[in-house]
Amino acid sequence: MKKTDIQRIRLDILSDKKSALSILMDKDGMLKRQGNGSLPIDETEIIGHVDAEYFANIVELVDEDVMPFANLYDHPNKAGTPLTVSAAFMDTHDGVKRFEFRLGTETTDIGDLFPFFDRFISQVVHMTQAWYDQEKARQESSDSTPCKP
Hints:
single chain, seven-stranded mixed sheet, 2 helices
């Protein structure tokens, strides 16, 4: 899959089977995000639209050379809290390249592929953080505003 083929990206981090991060975005600017990938888990889910440039900038971070290695990587030694980290890239032809890593927070000897996705996900979180914080504050303020009869 080439960068230019990517139409949608989904990123997830499960910590002990609880969602620590879920991001779904597409090239038209739809962005859905819950959490920040760390503990304590932030369960606030925000759905909205951003400038399509967000997606284009994130796609630029993708290394096409990793695409042939899309697979499930289930580490035999899940030391610490169990983690499932996944990244999926969808194209215009319903093709999907999915990477899933099952390991623990204290797992060592994780190879070269997982650190790439760990950095990629961290960069996406950073790039969408201001939007997430702003929309979360807006949602929280509207939730606390009493309804007028």
